[in-house]
Amino acid sequence: MSGTDVIEPRDIAELYSNHNGWLKGWLRTRLNCSETAADLAQDTFVRLLRKDKGNLVIREPRAYLTRVAQRLVINHWRRQDIEQAYLEALALQPEPLVPSVEEQQIIIETIMEVDAMLRSLPDKVHQAFLLSRMDGLTYSAIAQQLGVTERSIKNYMAQAMLHCLQFVEAS
Amino acid sequence: MPRSGFGSSSGPQQLPPSDPVALREAAEWFARLNDDQRDQNTELSWRNWLQAKESNQIAWAKVEQIDCQLKGLDSLPAQQALNTPVRDRRHVLKLLATLSIGLPLISALGWRASLPWRADYATTLGEIRNLTLADGSQLWLNTNSAVDITFDAQSRSIQLLQGEIAIRTAQDTRPLQVISQAGTIEPLGTWFNVRQHSDFDEVQVYEGRVRVTIRQSLQALEVPASERVQFTAQQLSQPQPLNHTRPNWTQGILVTDGMSLKDVITELGRYRRGYLGINDDVAQLRLVGAFPLQDTDPVLDAIAESLPVQVVRYGPWWAEIRKK
């Protein structure tokens, strides 16, 4: 984070002291967990610090904070869903295949990153990409499964990879 | 996929920003090289492209990073997790807009392992929670309970997934229904309680009336205030008088006016982890009193002081009530 693209720390400090308590309350009523609420409130202000100075004219601070916090809550729920799905699937594995708790955390983290990266892709592109990279299917097999031409699959693959590259570039 | 050998050991975030043209070309090469129908020329032309510019090498290193990240998820559980359906966005936003007041009366025990994560609202063991729904109705969730809530323009629906809830309805033109394991409960402006026991459901009505329709025989019954019914999907009991005027648990209190000790212990067991048992020879002792549900261990000690019983404990998760 360079010095030029942050808003004045003084503004943030003021925003923080005026609204942090309120934001934590807002989050707590939705998450029913003060610890998570405090974490997400913190993250909300961290996001603000990273914002481009030129874009950050906050006329309605609470409406703005709510919007940022909403996104974080949705993300938080997504993580819960994914974590739960992973642990449930893991429970069905024969024991020698189960990774250590530490490895599980790394895998869940990676799933979250990949999920965020692929989430906004069109459905078929998303599916084609996973079928190729995860299941190792050939383009012709994927084309058959999705009912499109092999040529489309090749285009989907390029589209998906470009999307991932741009995602990594932007973050 | 052939490896470039360039820069693939460092993360994409450590690589310099890329020229958009190089990124586009890299993505296209990726798609071509992954095709098992590719010919030898494809690989040769790719090498030429790679060596032509440093920006191409950087872009390709990023492709390899992403591919490597994906390959890290080649286990079946990881793939299943990646296919977790995304929650309906409108539904999520509606949930976020639902005003929920009041902190949990009783703090969670920090033990969420058995919680149905997918429910709209859920409580952990020992937790009691009060919510104000979008229509202004009050909803209480007792310990270890879960509900899904669907309100739309025509109707209001609350599905009880497990445990026990109490509802005090607000004025609203849309009909409200509570769906439990064994039936459907439709209140007519009212205050009532629904509990799922292990093999039957129970409705207690405090104000107004509710209509209970059971799932299989579709037999229905209107239950007036101060009465309760028990039902399964096949059978509906006759209404019985209620011996209390409000669901005390919503206040975090257990009122035991004359309950058998066995029933009291069963109730307390709903709010704590591990095993809580009682010997048959003291099961029928009667107990009168009001006890906080917040922490059940002191309650057990208080019972041992007022009745000829003792609490035998082995560690924090095992307790049994025996004759003194």
Question: What's the arrangement of secondary structure elements?
Answer:
The complex is a heterodimer of chains A (171) and B (324).
Chain A: H1 9-31, H2 34-50, H3 61-91, H4 101-118, H5 123-133, H6 139-146, H7 150-170
Helix pairs in contact in A: 1-2, 1-3, 2-3, 5-6, 5-7, 6-7
Chain B: H1 20-33, H2 40-52, H3 54-71, H4 76-82, H5 89-97, E1 121-122, E2 129-132, E3 138-141, E4 146-151, E5 156-162, E6 164-168, E7 176-179, E8 183-196, E9 201-214, E10 220-224, E11 227-231, E12 240-241, E13 253-255, E14 259-260, H6 261-269, E15 275-278, E16 286-287, E17 290-292, H7 296-306, E18 309-313, E19 318-323
Parallel strand pairs in B: 5-7, 15-19
Antiparallel strand pairs in B: 1-4, 2-3, 3-6, 4-5, 6-8, 7-8, 8-9, 9-10, 9-11, 11-12, 13-17, 14-16, 18-19
Give a short synopsis of this structure.
With 171 residues, chain A is an all-alpha fold.
Describe this structure in words.
The complex is a heterodimer of chains A (171) and B (324). Chain A has 171 residues and is mostly helical. Chain A has helices spanning 9-31, 34-50, 61-91, 101-118, 123-133, 139-146, 150-170. In chain A, helix 6 packs across helix 7 (150-170). The longest helix of chain A has 31 residues, at 61-91. Residues 1-6 of chain A have low confidence and may be disordered. Chain B has helices at 20-33, 40-52, 54-71, 76-82, 89-97, 261-269, 296-306; strands at 121-122, 129-132, 138-141, 146-151, 156-162, 164-168, 176-179, 183-196, 201-214, 220-224, 227-231, 240-241, 253-255, 259-260, 275-278, 286-287, 290-292, 309-313, 318-323. With 324 residues, chain B is α+β, with helices and mostly antiparallel strands. Chain B contains seven helices and 19 strands. In chain B, the strands form four sheets. In chain B, strands 1, 2, 3, 4, 5, 6, 7, 8, 9, 10, 11 and 12 form a twelve-stranded mixed β-sheet that branches. In chain B, strands 15-19-18 form a three-stranded mixed β-sheet, covered by helices on one side. In chain B, strands 13-17 form a two-stranded antiparallel ribbon. Chains A and B meet through helix 1, helix 3, helix 4, helix 5 and helix 7 of A and helix 1, helix 3, helix 4 and helix 5 of B.
